[in-house]
Specification:
Bidirectionally degrades single-stranded DNA into large acid-insoluble oligonucleotides, which are then degraded further into small acid-soluble oligonucleotides. The protein has about 450 residues and is α/β, with parallel strands linked by helices. About 50% of the residues lie in helices and about 20% in strands.
């Protein structure tokens, strides 16, 4: 824009508004509400301030109806807003898109940011999830040693499967030191390799109480674990970052205990089924052995000398009958072959061929004579025709009609008076002879 351009106040405010929107866009910020007003239009107007500064804010009706509560003066809130300019007064302000109480709102924002970050890195991908072992003998529990969650887990494990061994890795599950302790216990359990599966969790509470399981250090420790991990944090409606990274998510600590244990009644039923299978397998084995012994006995009976002699005699009689049948069949085949060859010999006798080829020779001779006679007749006819054609164009025939042919000394036919000069000798061919003349006069007159 040139320095001598003249702007109106409206143009200036529009330019500043566009600059603010383009340079800053949407932002998140936290502050205290003051001067809150709600006119009949349904829009909200208030000031957002902290210890040293304040800014005017507007939240229009189509945005504030989704908020779910009415803000109060003095309340700390977290807002998502666009920076803009109110052109009528030239005041810059915030247009609020979202508004929520500051405490839970900040934590929820941190939760969503970490969730998106870890998801983009692939920590939630199903390809990295490990399945629970089929035969779990030892269960590791990472939780508070004094919490109700540990009591519930142990009670259910003891009721469902008393044979399971339980190893407790005590840790804080709430407070600033809790995330590092939880991650440390996961690492210790992986180093010791003394359990088949780990339960990591605690009982229910507010989002602040469960926040240790939303920390990045805990999420990365769970992802790096070689042991399969069951996440059991809070109640069924509670979700933490640990739930998304863990190999299996249980709705509650009690549900986690049921996942990693087998009910003793079901185990008894399973043993009873296996006992039935074992009995059936033994019966089948004994039956197969009896069949084997019976077959051996039958083979032993079949190898008795008398049985062998009877068997050999039977084979001899069978072979004798087969030999007689084979001889009869052979004689019949030879007789049929002899008759067939005799017929073929008669069919190819030389006498028949001599008569046949003699007749064909006579036919060919007659065809040759006829062809030669025809070729001779055609040749004579062509000779007469060509002779007649030759005579019609012969110079001698021209001479017979009284004409002559005159040539110069080089035997070239004279067709024009320009070909000769006075004194030249010329030759004139007539029917009965030739005349030699000398040109004494040339008359170029044409007739």
């Amino acid at each position: 824009m040139q320095s001598n351009s003249i702007l109106s106040v409206k143009d200036l405010n529009q330019i500043v508004k566009d600059l603010l929107s383009d340079a800053i866009g949407q932002i998140w910020l936290v502050g205290e509400i003051s001067n809150f007003s709600r006119p009949a239009s349904g829009h909200w107007y208030f000031t957002l301030k902290d210890e040293v500064a304040q800014v005017r804010c507007a939240m229009f009706r189509n945005s504030n109806f989704r908020t779910g509560f009415t803000p109060q003066n003095g309340q700390q809130v977290l807002v998502n807003a666009s920076v803009t300019l109110y052109e009528a007064r030239g005041d810059y302000q915030l247009v609020i898109n979202q508004l929520q109480p500051a405490g839970a709102g900040l934590l929820q924002q941190k939760f969503e940011q970490l969730k998106q970050k870890l998801s983009e890195e692939g920590l939630f991908d199903a390809v990295y999830k490990k399945g629970l072992p089929d035969n779990i003998r030892t269960v590791g529990i990472i939780t508070s040693s004094t919490g109700a969650a540990l009591h519930d887990i142990c009670q259910i494990l003891n009721r469902r499967d008393p044979s399971l061994q339980v190893i407790i890795y005590p840790t804080q599950v709430q407070g600033s030191e809790a995330p590092a302790q939880i991650a440390r216990m996961i690492q210790i359990a992986n180093v010791r390799q003394e359990c088949d599966v780990l339960i990591v969790g605690r009982g229910g509470g507010s989002i602040e109480d469960l926040w240790a399981f939303n920390e990045e250090v805990v999420a990365r420790a769970i992802f790096a674990s070689q042991l399969p991990i069951v996440s059991a944090v809070g109640h069924e409606v509670d979700f933490t970052i640990a739930d998304f990274v863990a190999d299996v998510r249980a709705a509650t600590p009690s549900a986690a205990a049921e996942l990693v244990s087998r009910d003793k009644l079901e185990q008894i039923k399973s043993l009873q089924v296996q006992e039935q299978y074992l009995c059936m397998a033994i019966d089948y084995y004994l039956m197969r052995r009896r069949e084997f012994l019976n077959k051996r006995y039958q083979r032993l009976q079949a190898q008795h000398p008398q049985a062998k002699l009877a068997k050999q005699l039977n084979r001899l009689l069978t072979g004798r009958h087969a030999l007689f049948e084979n001889i009869q069949q052979y004689l019949l085949r030879q007789s049929y072959r002899h008759n067939l060859l005799d017929k073929r010999l008669v069919a190819v006798s030389p006498q028949h061929k001599i008569v046949y080829y003699g007749q064909r020779l006579e036919q060919k001779q007659q065809q040759l004579l006829n062809l030669m006679q025809k070729r001779l007749t055609d040749a004579k006819h062509q000779f007469v025709l060509k002779t007649s054609q030759l005579n019609s164009v012969s110079p001698l025939a021209t001479l017979d009609r009284g004409y002559s042919v005159t040539t110069d000394q080089q035997q070239k036919v004279i067709r024009s008076v320009e070909q000769v000069s006075i004194g030249d000798f010329i030759s004139t061919q007539l029917k009965t002879g030739r005349l030699i003349s000398q040109v004494v006069e040339i008359d170029k007159k044409a007739y």
